[in-house]
Amino acid sequence: MLFLIHFEVTVPADTSEELKEQLRLGEHARVFEFIKTGKLRRIWRPVGTADTCCLWEADSLEELHAAVRSLPLYPYMKLSITPLVEHPAAAAWEKAHGPMPAF
């Protein structure tokens, strides 16, 4: 199952710089694990924001829930999760031309 996830992170202003750095490093380490295992397929930053948008693969909603909750910045996140299905144009392309080009 594929999901489009929008993360908006708001760490309280009174959080120490040391804790912010620990959270950032921990978040990167966890994200790198998900990239290596193929669960986090792509990650982007919307222009003009500090938000994150990503394409995530999970075998179940429970797996996705556990993965997102394992992120160090999870307590500071506002999430929008959209399940995705294949578009008919993609299926038609693959029938006529083979796999979609990589992006």
Automatic annotation (TrEMBL):
- Which UniProt key words apply to this protein? Isomerase
Tell me which SUPFAM superfamilies the record gives: Dimeric alpha+beta barrel (SSF54909)
Source species: Pseudomonas fluorescens
Gene3D superfamilies recorded: Dimeric alpha+beta barrel
Domain Muconolactone isomerase span(s) in chain numbering:
1-89
Domain of life the protein comes from: Bacteria
Q: Which Pfam families match?
A: MIase
EC number(s) per entry: 5.3.3.4
Name the InterPro entries on file. Dimeric_a/b-barrel, MLI_dom
Q: What gene makes this protein?
A: catC_1
Output one GO MF annotation: muconolactone delta-isomerase activity
Q: Does this entry carry the keyword Isomerase?
A: yes
Q: What is this protein called?
A: Muconolactone Delta-isomerase
Asked if Isomerase is a keyword of the record, the answer is yes
